[in-house]
Amino acid sequence: MPLFDLPPIPDLPVLEEAQGYPVRRIFCVGRNYAAHAAEMGNEVPEQPFYFTKSPANMVLTGATLPYPPGTSDFHHEVELVVALGAELFRATPQDAAGAVYGYGTGLDMTRRDLQIAERKKQRPWDLGKDVEGGTVLSPLTRATDVGALTGRAITLEVDGATRQASTLDLMIHDVPHLLAHLSGFYHLRPGDLVLTGTPEGVGPVTPGMTLTGRIDGLSPVTLTLGQAA
Q: Where is the Fumarylacetoacetase-like C-terminal domain positioned along the sequence (predicted)?
């Protein structure tokens, strides 16, 4: 018998499916929109780079997240979420495109002050990025029901005011190339999510605000920010 029970594997609802999508790992892509890299004072990377977030820290759309400890600069980032439905290892972009199970809308909430402080010291970003409750996810839509992503709008509103507005075709590295590149370093499998980066317009939020992220043709994601715990 184990010393204690672990929480169940989290899963995401899938539109028009009775069963959920169990989440195994969460990979995130940094600086995948040129305008966002510029607003943060960073160069555009030649190759994709990644960080990870814990599935245990994900919540579903509609959640209320207490303002997290240790920060005074908590930022929103809206992102396209890609869910894998097949194994990938050292894949081509063509193979990677066929391995997508579905898409969703996500929020990568970030303790920006901690992220920047650690980055300046060339340390990992975990304190800034892997926030409890800080990965907020919409239900998935199966890829076969979505079609081409080119030109779809991606936006984020805070209390009804638009903060972020772009289109998915402005991603520096598109979904097939991201998955192919990532598969050179990991044996990707069903249950793996990839958050594909955020466009420009990121900024701070404070308790009482409501965030709504949208991508054309996908379920929206909402989050209410509560008082500090």
A: 26-218
Determine the residue type at 166: S
* Domains of the chain as residue ranges with CATH: 11-226 (3.90.850.10)
The b/e string for 162-192 (b: 16+ C-beta within 10 A; e otherwise) is ebbebbbebbbbbbbbbbbbbbeeeebeebb
pLDDT tens digits along 93-130 = 999 999 999 999 999 999 999 999 999 999 999 999 99
Enter the DSSP assignment of 155: E
Residue pair 215/80 in contact (Cβ under 8 Å)? The answer is yes
* Amino acid, res. 99: A
- Least confident range of 38-47, 52-61, 120-129: 38-47
Hey, how many other C-beta atoms are within 10 angstroms of the C-beta on 36?
23
For 31-59, give the DSSP string: S-BHHHHHHTT-PPPSS--EEEE-GGGEE
Collect all residues with Cβ–Cβ distance below 8 Å to 75 and sequence separation of at least 6. Answer: 109, 110, 111, 112, 202, 203, 204, 205
Interval 50-78 mean pLDDT? 98
Q: CB 124: neighbour CB atoms within 10 A?
A: 13
C-alpha angle 130-78-6 in degrees, rounded to nearest 5: 35
